[in-house]
Design brief:
alpha+beta, 2 domains, two-stranded antiparallel ribbon
């Protein structure tokens, strides 16, 4: 029995909500995600995002991005689909935009399904690249930008 809301019990409630909604999503062919929870001790609120499943046979929204090898920066096409932890969140590597040198990597938040642009060095760190490889990614980004600042 919950007498007041706090971060701990709301974490448990979130998991229970996501589990219950997973059955509804599967039954109706939907994607359902629970947004940020705002709360005080007596009530909480959240946003549910519900999307219809993509009806085009296996073609997803992210298919328009280039394979990772198109960057020529040491990423392998096998890195596509890998889940990396960056800043405490989990992201799936879904592709790249070779002409976007500042933030060329496209990743998808595993929890929400939202797409984000990210620096090559941040994704490289998440994939476990060596310091030398990450420094190379930063150097390439700096050469392209021409401003001498790091890209992340």
């Amino acid at each position: 029995m919950i007498k007041s809301f706090d971060k701990s019990n709301l974490g448990t409630i979130r998991k229970d909500l996501e589990q219950a909604l997973a059955g509804v999503a599967k039954e109706h062919g939907l994607t359902i995600s629970v947004g940020n929870i705002r709360f005080n001790t007596t009530e909480f609120g959240t946003k549910l995002q519900v999307r219809v499943a993509n009806g085009s046979a296996g073609v997803t929204e992210v298919s328009r991005y280039s394979p990772l090898s198109a960057l020529g920066l040491g990423f392998k096409d096998e890195d596509m689909g890998k889940v990396v932890s960056i800043g405490g969140k989990k992201y799936e590597v879904v592709g790249c935009k070779p002409r976007a040198w500042k933030m060329p990597m496209i990743v998808k938040d595993v929890r929400t399904g939202k797409l984000f642009k990210m620096s090559a060095s941040a994704v490289g760190q998440g994939l476990g690249m060596t310091k030398k490889e990450i420094d190379f990614l930063r150097e390439v980004a700096n050469q392209e930008r021409g401003d001498g600042r790091y890209d992340d």
